[in-house]
Model the fold of this input.
Amino acid sequence: MPIVGFRSAIFKREKQVKVLLIDDHPLILSALEVVVRRLAQDVSVTCAANAVLAREALAASADFDLALLDLQLGDDDGFAVLADLRASFPAVPVVIVSASDRRAHVLRAIDLGAMGFVCKCAGNDTLLKALEMVMSGGIYLPATIMRTAPASDDDAAYRANDLAGRNAAGSQENTDLVISRLGLTRRQSEVLALLLRGQSNKLIARALNLSVETIKDHVAAVLRALKVSSRTQAVLVVGEMSNPGGAWRHGPGNGGLRPDVLQGGAASRPSS
Done:
């Protein structure tokens, strides 16, 4: 039974794919368009040079499959734009494509609901792989988000350097498998699936027809099960465990991510 809130694990390449590109540099828009047109045979691309045009495009047609957002949009704050898009158009996954690869920026973007983060210095194939992963229900994180850490005698399964060589996010199939093995209740599994889609507590409550307070209780139970203290950490942990061939144990003594892995991350706070 598929987890609520995820797209199909198999991306239907035969259907038209609608992509919104949000960047204020024409050359970057042209380069991004070349890559996204490789997603399927029929790709419709809309370009927006600022946040106002992006909102207008999404308001006019809410069936976009994907949006790519630059964090530097002239006078617009990219993080504020991201938060607004996720709140106003939660069905459209947003991937950040930024000149910055700072850990704090990556974690803040994921905390605000981005489904992926790709540095502009990455190659076209890396970007294409990231977009395909997001389109199939995964979360794409750059390899630099995971720091190399030596294995200890009591944590032989943990290999941060091995994870760093792969993307710290899994496909829909792997993510579903991870969720099923966490020992959560059905409702907690549904909440976690929607949390991984970057949805706020209010949106999760609306989707599951529950109160926000009830959702907060379920989120707290999910975080305890994952042995983490924030939604962003939960995304990273599930991403690690979903990684094919990656270790199931995600920290010393199976007790959560190592502190150095999450250094610079967003502060733990509930999402309203």
Notes: Residues 84 and 167 are 27 Å apart (CA to CA). The chain is about 40% helix and 10% strand.
